[in-house]
Write a structure and sequence with these properties.
This is YaeQ family protein. InterPro entries: Restrct_endonuc-II-like, YaeQ, YaeQ_sf. Pfam families: YaeQ (PF07152). The chain is α/β, with parallel strands linked by helices. Helix content is about 25%, strand content about 40%. The chain is built from four helices and eleven strands, in the order ββαβββαβαβαββββ. The strands form two sheets. A six-stranded mixed beta sheet has the order 3-4-5-6-7-11. It has a five-stranded mixed beta sheet with strand order 2-1-8-9-10. The radius of gyration is 16 Å and the shape is globular. It starts with 5 loop residues before the first strand and ends in a 5-residue tail after the last strand.
């Protein structure tokens, strides 16, 4: 019997001083059976960093044709493709060919470092690609905020996201590895 996704709910209030974006989102997050709590919480944090009226979670991990999040315009064109993990060169090429901006958040400690060592020389040919690294200890701190029903506050200033709940507060400071675009 196939395992089913675990459903989480999050009321997320965002104050993004960097972009001048202030709004609340009621999110329903499906945690894929193969997805860790750390990765799922990182998806929420990345949503807060890129939030907009039409930013949505996709089927992501369970569909090779979609990223973890995307923002599409009314013409169904992908304006932002937001991915987590260590995609191969082919997937990055596809994302850059389909989207106006591509954002990749790499995580995982040593395996992420090894991935970047192999990929660093290959990404220069991809237009509008931005790659960031997330520290392993940040993932553990994000996981500590997780509950089946969450009330989260996100404040973004100077590129740092502060995500907080009654469980505590976490600073998410993505380290830029490649690219120069602003969110």
């Amino acid at each position: 019997m196939a395992l089913k996704a675990t459903i989480y709910k999050a009321d997320l209030t965002i104050s993004d001083m960097d972009r001048g974006y202030y709004d609340s989102h009621s999110l329903t997050i499906a945690q894929h059976p193969s997805e860790t709590i750390e990765r799922m919480m990182l998806r929420i944090a990345v949503f807060a960093l890129h939030a907009g009226e039409y930013m949505v979670f996709t089927r992501g991990i369970s569909d090779d044709e979609e990223p973890d999040l995307w923002l599409k315009n009314f013409s169904d064109e992908i304006e932002q493709w937001v991915e987590l993990g260590e995609p191969d060169e082919k997937r990055l090429r596809k994302a850059c060919g389909r989207a106006g901006q591509v954002w990749l958040y790499n995580y995982g400690g040593r395996s992420a470092d090894i991935w970047w060592e192999g990929m660093a020389g290959k990404v220069g040919r991809f237009d509008h690609l931005n790659i960031f690294s997330i520290a392993t200890d940040t993932l553990a701190e994000l996981a500590a905020l997780c509950e089946r029903s969450m009330q989260l506050n996100a404040t973004v200033q100077d590129g740092v996201l502060w995500l907080s709940s009654e469980q505590g507060s976490v600073a998410v400071s993505p380290h830029r590895l490649y690219g120069s675009a602003e969110r």
